[in-house]
From TrEMBL:
The reaction(s) this protein catalyses: alpha-D-glucosamine 6-phosphate + H2O = beta-D-fructose 6-phosphate + NH4(+)
Residues of the Glucosamine/galactosamine-6-phosphate isomerase domain: 9-227
Pfam families: Glucosamine_iso
Active-site residues per Swiss-Prot or TrEMBL entry: D67, N136, H138, E143
Gene responsible for this protein: nagB
Protein's recorded name: Glucosamine-6-phosphate deaminase
Length: 241
């Protein structure tokens, strides 16, 4: 594990963006694994800026997102498809047909999970997977107690996660309690992983991720077993190390 501690959230975003851009500029076709949540928004801004300044192109990039709410269509304002379009895809030169997220609306969610796995393989696997981390140590929507070998599947969200994400939903709005998420086993097959965390509310999860035992109680701790992981955090998230 390479641990990079930087002054603040902006420095984290810039560092991660430079790392990703260098990879994209090295390969003729790349597969990026992407994440939602508030943490990567600054990173997406940097990646958009680099595209505008012609420092990078996304024309030959395929993306796979970690997760999606089950029950929300891609046009729903809280869907992760909408999030990705709004914060990233609508502002870059990527072909939208090359951007994949698990299907939020499907008559056969189990089949949709299997097809998602198949699609990742067809595209050659993920070169670099971006991760945030939940304050309970979840990655994607792999909540504590998730199997460390899990594949893309339907996952019930924990009370903690539902509460943490409530802020995005209006008072009377339907908030899903189920998701489709890449499994931990799926994530670990990425050739490289970069996890970002900022702010003191992530300090405990970061300590458990880096210094704790590898355990399903903190799904992110399994990253200790991957050969090519970089954890990029600000000083607040690093305060318990
Ligand atoms: C959600 C997402 C995760 C994300 C986490 C943390 O639950 N499924 O992929 O890492 O939230 O989000 P934030 O960056 O807003 O703290």
């Amino acid at each position: 594990m390479r641990i990079v501690v930087l002054k603040n959230a902006q420095a984290v975003a810039e560092f991660a963006a430079n790392h990703i851009i260098a990879l994209l500029n090295k390969k003729s076709h790349s597969v990026l694994g992407l994440a939602t949540g508030s943490t990567p928004i600054r990173l997406y801004k940097q990646l958009i800026q680099a595209n505008e300044q012609k420092k990078v192109s996304y024309k030959n990039v395929t993306t796979f997102n970690l997760d999606e709410y089950l029950g929300l269509s891609g046009t729903h304002l809280q869907s992760y498809r909408h999030f990705m379009n709004h914060y990233f895809f609508d502002h870059i030169d990527i072909n939208k047909e090359d951007t994949f997220l698990p299907k939020g609306i499907t008559s056969d969610p189990m089949l949709a999970c299997a097809e998602y796995e198949k699609k990742i393989k067809e595209k050659g696997g993920i070169d670099i997977q971006l991760l945030g981390v939940g304050s309970n140590g979840h990655i994607g929507f792999n909540e504590p107690s998730s199997s460390l070998a899990s594949r893309t599947r339907i996952k019930a969200l924990s009370e903690d996660t539902i509460a943490a994400n409530k802020r995005f939903f209006a008072v009377d709005e339907f908030q899903p309690s189920l998701s489709i998420t890449m499994g931990i086993g799926t994530i670990l097959e990425s050739r490289e992983i970069i996890l970002l965390a900022t702010g003191s509310n992530k300090a405990e999860a970061i300590r458990n991720t880096i210094e704790g035992p590898v355990a399903a109680s903190c799904p992110a701790s399994i990253l200790q077993m991957h050969q090519h992981v970089m954890i990029v955090i600000d000083e607040e998230a690093a305060q318990n190390l």
